[in-house]
Design goal:
Elements lengths: L1 H15 L18 H32 L8 H10 L10 H10 L4 H13 L3 H14 L4 H32 L10 H7 L3 H38 L4 H14 L2 H14 L6 H11 L12
């Protein structure tokens, strides 16, 4: 009886308790969350391992290619970052640093070499030329520096030439009315000239004359530098050709002809040999006709 009463009470409690709602949809993962989502991230991490391995290999190859880490000191990473310019600045010497170097030791060629490089990186051709002239005055046999100097001098000459051509055009436009004035006679004396136009023309004429001299000096400098290169390396065919080109542009036909001939001796089978021989005929003065003997 007692047992029957207990079972009856348990049955009544079971009926009174609300039934637990069975969850709809997908069954939850034992650890919580979406099992498919966790599986996705596990796959992603597995793939990421290969990416990390690839990046490590690329990093190692970059170090080997650039030679980073082969030297002593802590310059390895600095060199790497400078080479790829990740921070947006160059790794070369600065103008101020080179100037301080020169002030500390004026007889050291390295300071002038660094200063020239710094000016070149800034596009300052004129100051780069001045620095290289100082450098080559100390390192007189540095062929590479002489060739670099000659190239800069040719660039400088071309810049001056473009400025000269523009100034010459302005000169033609500085006094347009003068082309309609009579140049002599009583009428010319009576009309005179326009003082404003004369002042403008005089100013432009000064600029034209100044630029003309700068062009000539720059080309002469290039010729002199290439001549030094050919003396240091007499079998350098390219140097002889560059000398010929610079001399021809400078109007020094005798030096140009000699340099072209030297180039042909060193490069007789050059694809430009025929054109150069023709050019030599044009530049070389015609031999004087022999005088006829009087009978």
């Amino acid at each position: 009886m007692a047992r029957a009463a207990v079972k009856a009470k348990q049955a009544e409690r079971a009926k009174a308790a609300p039934a637990k709602a069975r969850p709809h949809g997908r069954r939850k993962h034992a650890g919580g969350g979406n099992p498919n989502q966790q599986l996705f991230f596990m796959k992603l991490r597995r793939k990421a391992k290969w990416i990390y391995v690839l990046l490590a290999v690329l990093f190692a190859v970059t170090f080997a290619f650039l030679g980073v880490g082969s030297g002593s000191g802590s310059g390895g990473l600095d060199q790497l970052f400078n080479n790829i310019n990740i921070f947006g600045h160059g790794g070369g010497p600065s103008v101020s640093k080179a100037q301080k170097e020169i002030a500390k030791n004026p007889s050291d060629a390295k300071g002038y070499r660094d200063l020239a490089t710094a000016y070149e990186s800034k596009g300052d051709t004129n100051n780069a030329i001045d620095a290289l002239l100082q450098y080559t005055n100390i390192k007189k046999k540095d062929t590479k520096a002489w060739s670099e100097l000659a190239g800069l001098q040719s660039t400088q000459a071309q810049t001056y030439l473009a400025q000269y051509q523009n100034a010459y055009q302005l000169l033609q436009l500085a006094a347009p009315s003068q082309s309609f004035y009579p140049t002599n006679g009583k009428l010319a004396t009576a009309l005179g000239t326009d003082p404003i136009e004369n002042a403008q023309r005089s100013s432009v004429q000064t600029s034209v004359t100044d630029l003309q001299q700068k062009v000539q000096l720059a080309y002469n400098g290039a010729v002199s530098s290439w001549q030094t290169v050919t003396k240091l390396q007499p079998r350098n065919g390219d140097a002889w050709f560059q000398l010929a080109q610079a001399a021809q542009t400078a109007g020094d036909t005798a030096t140009a002809v000699t340099a072209y001939k030297k180039y042909l001796v060193l490069n007789p089978t050059s694809s430009s040999a025929a054109q150069i021989r023709q050019l030599i005929k044009q530049l070389a003065p015609a031999p004087a006709a022999p005088k006829k003997k009087k009978k």
